[in-house]
Design brief:
- The complex is a heterotrimer.
- Chain A has a single domain, classed as c-terminal domain of poly(a) binding protein, CATH 1.10.1900.10.
- Chain A is an all-alpha fold.
- Chain A contains seven helices and no strands.
- The two termini of chain A are 33 Å apart.
- By secondary structure, chain B is of the alpha+beta class.
- Chain B has one domain: Winged helix-like DNA-binding domain superfamily/Winged helix DNA-binding domain (Arc Repressor Mutant, subunit A).
- Helices cover 61% and strands 13% of the residues of chain B.
- Chain B has a three-stranded antiparallel β-sheet.
- The longest helix of chain B is centred in the C-terminal third of the chain and has 27 residues.
- The two termini of chain B are 30 Å apart.
- Chain C has a single domain, classed as c-terminal domain of poly(a) binding protein.
- The longest helix of chain C is centred in the last third of the chain and has 24 residues.
- Chain C is globular, with a radius of gyration of 16 Å.
- Classes of the chains: A mainly alpha, B alpha+beta, C mainly alpha.
- At the A-C interface, helix 1, helix 3, helix 6 and helix 7 of A face helix 2, helix 4, helix 6 and helix 7 of C.
- Chain C: InterPro entries: UCP029876.
- Chain C: This is DUF1048 domain-containing protein.
- Chain C: It comes from Streptomyces finlayi.
Chain lengths: 108, 109, 118
């Protein structure tokens, strides 16, 4: 039960949000949009995994290097997101696989 | 050179492995190295996604170290599996580039 | 509510109760969207509900985040809730949706960053 653990105000999540808030506006905007996208796509290891805090780590380094957010992500932020989750299955993948499994059983 | 993104796909991971093999280093420095090399289109984010993948595939050892100018940085070093992967990459690269050179020399007959 | 009847098994209904409690805490508009999502996802295939839980969990999480950010449901789900649900479950047309989300992401980023600059 990952996501709700995160959402329901666990300490880590609050600390995470606070870090996001502390980012410069351009980084914050891109982070929020990325997170929305990732929630929709739903990679399985999103909830408790290191992905979201990792993005903030990465962004903080960009800030420290004095770079603008699109300089570090590239203009195609969606492609950056897809690269991040390239090899992690999504909930939809698992769901589809479970349907295929059921069909397989029936046809036998 | 610009517009290499498509062509670099699949080889960039090997390049990153090679850079890490030289010395333990971190993402932004790796990007800088690739930019200096002439891959000017490569941004930090591209390297970050590659490092994430290398970490998931357990090809690198990651150590967090404090930095003078900002938050702690993740430093990457190759482990045995990573060195093996890098050797495989160079073997494959040598093969592909020799075949392509041959094709260029002999033409499409 | 219909979906209560569809779900059997006590551990599943416990999860449902947890969902319901979370949905209660949402603003009206978001709670209504949750109801819509549930009713569109449930008939989505031949399943026990078990494999759908993570997807619903994700959708609810998205609504919670949206509400917490003070954003409207429309901004996140768009006009086509059934289509959105299909995409969540990875069914037919999911790829199209993923592409649309992708475009939406880049468009939002461009729009909000330019507002920042100007």
């Amino acid at each position: 039960m990952g996501i709700q653990d995160i959402i329901e105000g666990k300490k880590q999540w609050r600390a995470h949000k606070a870090r996001v808030k502390a980012l410069p506006a351009d980084y914050r905007i891109v982070y929020e949009e990325m997170q929305k996208y990732l929630f929709k796509v739903g990679p399985v290891d999103l909830p408790d995994g290191p992905l979201l805090p990792g993005i903030v780590d990465f962004f903080e380094e960009g800030v420290a290097a004095g770079k603008g957010v699109l300089e570090v992500t590239g203009n195609d932020v969606a492609a950056f997101c897809d690269g991040l989750i390239q090899d992690s299955p999504t909930y939809a993948d698992l769901y589809q696989a479970s349907l295929d499994g059921d069909l397989g059983k029936k046809s036998r | 050179m610009d517009d290499l993104t498509e062509m670099l796909k699949g080889t960039l991971e090997g390049c990153v492995l090679e850079i890490i093999a030289g010395e333990e280093t971190y993402g932004y420095a790796i990007t800088r190295r690739l930019n200096e090399l002439g891959f000017t289109d490569v941004v930090e984010g591209t390297v970050y996604t590659i490092l994430l993948r290398l970490e998931r595939k357990k090809l690198v050892q990651v150590t967090k170290r404090p930095s003078e100018v900002g938050p702690p940085r993740k430093f990457y070093a190759l482990n045995d599996a990573g060195r093996e992967e890098l050797a495989t990459f160079w073997t494959k690269w040598a093969y592909v580039s020799s075949r392509i050179d041959k094709l260029k020399k002999e033409g499409g007959r | 509510m219909k979906f209560w009847e569809t779900i059997t098994g006590s551990d599943l209904s416990r999860e449902w109760k947890a969902f319901e409690a979370r949905a209660e805490a949402l603003p009206d508009e978001h709670r209504a969207a949750w109801g819509q999502i549930v009713s569109h996802l449930l008939p989505h295939g031949d399943f026990t509900g078990r494999n759908l839980m993570p997807i619903l969990d994700g959708a609810l999480g998205l609504l919670e985040e949206t509400a917490a950010d003070g954003q409207s449901v429309h901004e996140v789900l768009g006009d086509d809730v059934p289509g959105f649900c299909t995409a969540l479950a990875g069914g037919e047309g999911a790829r199209t949706y993923r592409d649309r989300w992708r475009e939406q992401l880049n468009r939002n980023v461009a729009r909000k960053l330019s507002r920042l600059g100007g």
